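Propose amino acids for all 271 sites.
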């Protein structure tokens, strides 16, 4: 399990996160939702080791994250940030192969190349091979970066539980690729036994693909549980200030579907 234990984060006199405890287990998809500024990306950065918490501890497979070497962390946990910028004209396959850096000395060049090709196929970017990364659209770049982190975790013989952290992985994607990426996270969880933690703004995507949902509000853990328990009209209104109906999904009846009410436009308050 990748576990946050009583995590708090303060910057100056501002509290970003307050006493957060949650964990993602190998084989499940955990969605993190919440309003803008709730602390979602900060929590992800702490779980990835990019930020150090003001208090609390992150444990990776029952061992404090600080006791893991950087190479072993990279083999066990991969992170796809919201924005991955590259200013140099690398070809697509070169970007994806960067995910194999932790295996440079433990795997052959042939094995690393096979992993790169498999990751590109899985992320549906194989047709972009040979293209310069800087010439791609935002959505294409996001999918190439997804292939890179898949290549990083591509180790079929590994029995150690592994984890994939995704910060708004669908933000630049069209409808088809949104569902492909999140369907892929379910496949990784069930077939690779990978724990997936994804920050998502779309509650219906979270409801459809996540095993559990954690909702942050003003830096605190407001809701935590399975989608049907978490996504109630009252809870959504309390956190997001939006009136909704929640019904069973017509195709996936065990999953909730959130239907927002159209707000009344007040011309006086907007003036």
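Proposal:
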């Amino acid at each position: 399990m990748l576990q946050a234990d009583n995590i708090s984060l303060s910057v100056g006199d501002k509290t970003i996160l307050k006493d957060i405890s949650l964990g993602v287990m190998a084989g499940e998809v955990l969605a993190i939702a919440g309003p803008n500024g709730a602390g979602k990306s900060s929590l992800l950065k702490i779980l990835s080791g990019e930020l150090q918490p003001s208090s609390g501890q992150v444990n990776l497979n029952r061992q404090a994250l600080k006791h893991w070497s950087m190479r072993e962390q990279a083999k066990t946990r991969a992170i796809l940030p919201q924005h991955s910028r590259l200013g140099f004209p690398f070809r697509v396959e070169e970007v994806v192969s960067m995910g194999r850096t932790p295996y440079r000395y433990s795997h052959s060049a042939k094995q690393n190349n096979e992993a790169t090709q498999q990751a590109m196929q899985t992320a549906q970017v194989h047709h972009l091979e040979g293209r310069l990364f800087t010439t791609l659209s935002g959505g294409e770049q996001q999918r190439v970066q997804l292939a890179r982190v898949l290549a990083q975790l591509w180790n079929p013989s590994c029995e150690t539980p592994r984890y994939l952290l995704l910060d708004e992985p669908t933000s630049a994607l069209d409808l088809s690729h949104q569902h492909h990426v999140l369907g892929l996270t379910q496949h990784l969880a069930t077939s690779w036994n990978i724990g997936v933690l994804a920050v998502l703004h779309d509650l219906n995507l979270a409801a459809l693909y996540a095993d559990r949902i954690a909702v942050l509000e003003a830096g605190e853990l407001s809701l935590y549980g399975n989608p049907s328990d978490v996504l109630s009209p009252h809870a959504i209104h309390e956190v997001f200030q939006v009136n909704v109906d929640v019904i069973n999904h017509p195709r996936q009846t065990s999953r909730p579907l959130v239907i927002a009410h159209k707000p009344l436009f007040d011309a006086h308050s907007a003036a």
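The radius of gyration is 19 Å. The mean pLDDT is 92.
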